[in-house]
């Protein structure tokens, strides 16, 4: 019985992206591979060395699938989706009044860090 090497599942995910692109379009394909799989892989690589070792290979394969401008536009869009509307006026004296949870803020900050890390890996 073969052991599943979860840290190498990215290979199948990259292969699946081509079919997604054909069936559902570019936006769905890039959201699946980079927005979901690659960012989760980055998160896993923070605590698991076997994922960390595979990260450069995963990044190289993503760069073969998508053009640099597609990657840059998508990651910028992800950052903008998480950003507050600058036209929105802040009317609360503190975070409690705004009913913001500290863990929500930490989670959002971690997401931004992962997106910035993805930019470094995929665009440099």
Description:
By secondary structure, the protein is mainly alpha-helical. It has one domain. It has 5 helices and no strands.
Poorly predicted spans:
85-92
Output the helix-strand order: HHHHH
What's the overall geometry? globular
Task: Using the CA coordinates, give the radius of gyration.
Answer: 17 Å
Q: Which range does the strand content fall in?
A: under 5%
SSE-based structural type? mainly alpha
List its salient traits:
124 residues, mainly alpha, 5 helices
Please render the helix and strand layout as text.
Layout: H1 10-24, H2 26-45, H3 49-65, H4 68-82, H5 102-123
Helix pairs in contact: 1-2, 1-3, 2-3, 2-4, 2-5, 3-5, 4-5
Can you describe this structure in just a few lines?
The protein is mainly α.
